[in-house]
Amino acid sequence: MFSLKPPKPTFRSYLLPPPQTDDKINSEPKIKKLEPVLLPGEIVVNEVNFVRKCIATDTSQYDLWGKLICSNFKISFITDDPMPLQKFHYRNLLLGEHDVPLTCIEQIVTVNDHKRKQKVLGPNQKLKFNPTELIIYCKDFRIVRFRFDESGPESAKKETQTKLMEFPQEMEEEEEEEVMELVVAAARKLHSLKLTRIGTEKSRGQVLPGGEFVLLTRVT
Fold it and tell me: CA 38, 55, 81: angle at the middle one, nearest 5?
């Protein structure tokens, strides 16, 4: 009679299985401090947290949340969210994905939706209203829009609401002053830049914070 019992397995694996992680432990989002990437000699003039960058014109579904800073070289938006609808991946050695150099800015417009006011910001001008939107018109035909009317995502809203409950008047005044100071600082830095010439030929490029001029294209 033949035995119907299956043979014992003789293969032994010496590879360890991947460690099992608890989804409940890792479900909490990690709060990462957003820090700007600065060039040598670059100084941050002002910054505002919980800013929304508008990506699409017809919907806010793809908008990004982050921090908006103004330095003596650029206006930079820092975020942890991935860029939506991105087809091409490239990297600039001097600028980040959401950076706009001051030499590339043509005009800065501030908007207040509640008071229905819109103002083109020039040098040595003071804002008489709190802006809810900042529109930057660039020389390369880009239009960059930032919104200040929301305080942030759900986690940021909870943190901000807690602070507002403790210091309601002080927090509102500080946030309004930060937005106004950043917009005014960006306008002043933009108009304080001087044109750079090499010999008698006009050149286009980027002026680094230390005064060095990086030639990009030459107009003949």
Answer: 55
